[in-house]
Amino acid sequence: MDALREAGVLLPISMLKSKYKHGTFKDAMKAVDFLHGSAQKIWHIEPIMYMDSDLRNYKTISQFAIDPIYADLDEFINMGLLSTAEIFKLDEEAEKKFDAHDKELIKTEKIKALRLVYKRAYQDFTKEAIYQEFIKENEYWLKDFALFMTIYNKKNSFEDFSEEEININKYKDNLDADIEEEAKFQEFLQFLLYRQYLKLKNYANNLGVKILCDLSFYLNEFSSDVWAKKDYFEVDNKLRPLNYAIKAIEEDKDLNKIDKRLVYSFDFIAFDSYEYIKEKYGYYSKLFDYIRLVDIEDYETTIKVDAKTMDADTISADKNPIEEIFAVLKENDIIDKVFTDYIRCNSKIIKKIMKEGKVFESKTIQDAFDINADEKSLPLNLDKTTVYYSSDFDMKELDKYLNSSSDMKLRIEDYTMKKNFTTLDIVERMYSSNASKVIIAIWDLLDDVNKRTRELDLDEIKHKLETILKQYMVQFLR
User: Fold this and answer.
1) d(Cα 341, Cα 343) in Å, to the nearest integer?
2) For 291, phi and psi rounded to 5 degrees?
3) Fewer CB atoms near the end CB (10 Å): N or C, the chain?
4) Residue span of the signal peptide, if any (predicted)?
5) What percent of the chain is predicted at pLDDT more than 90?
């Protein structure tokens, strides 16, 4: 475990200003330069895996594939494989959507362009050793994902799959030339994205910046992982979920409106010697320098509801093999990269695992101020294995108390040691805490520097932000 104190920012790549209206891996280079110039060591990004049709970062159709929306087309223009005249050819209606940052349109247009790259350069790229290495190292998920995409582009759910399509082995036995060609394109597309992301990561690491990414526990019900490895999940032979996983806070909500998360079949995963855990977390440990496990309580207990009825009376809870999971992470040298958040979790098992594994605990300002003032979790009492988070949601909550005489305001005053505090005062106090890691959301500072917009132009604000962050780093390093 790296014991050095480090600070960083939470800044989604998608927010970065781009001529394609959605941040790309090339645009992300500027963010790395900004972090380096601000003496920051950690960059917390949002998940970059392949989003489903809802285009939400935490709902993906693969735990492994990278989303094409992050692709940098300029690289291929510079290589002579694309021309500016043949990409993003939009009519008036589409232009309006593009100007409104329509993710579906942006992704669709990028995939069209990358198909041209495939037609023009597939033979050349596949001769490179790095391509062959990529195919070999990712064989455990890549080919199945590529085949899944040959159906996914035409179907909206597993219910739409034919009897032949629903069974991956039957589907593999009946591939025609068109399907094989499309699967080759999907593999090639993932190679291009992996290559661009790796270039970004190496650039960041060479400047002393480490990349941190969130990892959700559960999977979307419609994904390549389920199609390829159905025995790992509680589904029937037609991939229909038997149960859905829900969070404790959702038990009193309308269960028909919650996100559909699949329940793992841990009996089979254990029978298979936890290979899926090794593959999934091992892959993330290669992609990212740090992994933040979202909702750690899900690792200990699965709360589930019958998928057919979605009736609250069918809610039950199963204990998960959390100790075995973390033992696998430790045995495979992944544990040193793990952050997790259990501030609201009273589980003795989780606390024991975190302590023995020396896993970084992450806390947020909002959680810290919401609990009893005598609790050890208050920011003033953070220990040195803590990751201290600030976020957009936290700031909105804190703003409610800026002009109040509530106890909350008094706590913030005590925390910042200022009566007329701003978000900058809160950030400054974070940096001067005892925490090993401090992560702030970049937009926490934007109200004090510039108005937050749909996209963030680092060129416009980086000078003042760099000055602010460097100033706080002096305190952080004391």
Assistant:
1) 6
2) -120, 125
3) C
4) none
5) 51
Nearest to 211 by CA among 29, 349, 399: 29
Residues 166, 239: contact at Cβ < 8 Å?
A: yes
Could you report the average pLDDT of every consecutive run of 10 residues in the chain (478 residues)? Answer: 76 91 94 94 94 79 95 96 92 87 92 96 90 94 97 90 94 94 97 97 97 90 94 95 85 77 94 95 95 85 91 91 92 89 68 79 70 55 72 64 65 81 83 84 76 76 87 75
Query: Residue 171 and residue 158: Cα distance in Å, rounded?
Result: 14
Give the angle subtended at the CA of 396 by the CAs of 393 and 399, to the nearest 5°.
Answer: 150
C-alpha angle with apex 297: 295 to 300, nearest 5 degrees? Answer: 135
Q: Determine the 3-state secondary structure of 9 from DSSP.
A: strand
Contact at 8 Å (CB) between 412 and 369? yes
Beta strands 261-262 and 243-246 are antiparallel
d(CA 71, CA 24) in angstroms, rounded, equals 6
Residue with tokens 């050095």: 4
HSE (side-chain half, CA atoms, 13 Å) at 10: 23
CA-wise closest residue to 231 among 295, 187, 275, 284: 275
Q: Cβ atoms within 10 A of the Cβ of 141, count?
A: 20
Residue owning tokens 């009193």: 252
Helices (H), 38-167: 74-78, 92-99, 103-126, 129-137, 139-152, 163-166
Cα 248 to chain centroid distance, Å, stands at 22
Place of tokens 């980086």: 462
Structure tokens that stand for 460 in this block? 């416009």
Where in 265-359 does DSSP place strands (E)? 290-293, 301-306, 316-319, 338-340
